[in-house]
Amino acid sequence: MMMTIGASTGCAVKHQPVLNDYGISSCPVEAAAHLLSADALQCWFDAPHGRWRIVGHDSHYAVLVVHVEALNVRDADAIARRFVAAENETFSEILVYVQPERARDSSRIRRVRWERDEGFDVLDFTALPR
User: Fold this and answer.
1) Which residues pair with 44 in a beta bridge?
2) What is the pLDDT of residue 17?
3) DSSP code per residue over 3-40
4) What is the pLDDT of residues 81-117, one digit of tens each?
5) For the chain, how many structural domains are there in total?
6) For residue range 8-34, what is the model confidence (pLDDT) as tens digits?
């Protein structure tokens, strides 16, 4: 069953569907301040087009690789910029792979890559089924 709720944003009313949270709560302030913490792996963050969560992350020397599940892959740039703002002193390259939430088409992936000397680039691709 899909329900809608109204939330006031200035003069307009925005309707957003209530989604299954899969038992995952919204992120506390501490998690948002420390995206690589264990707390950040256990909650939903907000983005311009909906929610997102960190599925996992790895670091290899000076490279950070982050896997994210988002309501909308259009938020990939905004999500990647959060990691770059927080971790650009530690890593020279950050790759953020964003796929739609599990209830949607999970084969579409958007990768946002940031390199200290080159800046940002985006690549959309379809993952092959396993």
Assistant:
1) 26
2) 53
3) -EEEEEETTEEEEEE----TT-EEPPHHHHH-TTSTGG
4) 999 999 999 999 999 999 998 655 557 899 999 999 9
5) 1
6) 334 444 445 556 777 788 988 889 899
DSSP string, 56-94: EEEEETTEEEEEEEES-GGGHHHHHHHHHHHHTTT-SEE
Q: How far apart are CA 123 and CA 101, in angstroms?
A: 18
Structural domain that includes position 97: 4-126
**Nearest residue to 62 (alpha-carbon basis) of 94, 96, 97:** 94
CB 105 within 8 A of CB 123: no
- Whole-model pTM: value is 0.80
Contact 17, 51 (CB under 8 A): no
Cβ atoms of 108 and 99 within 8 Å: the answer is yes
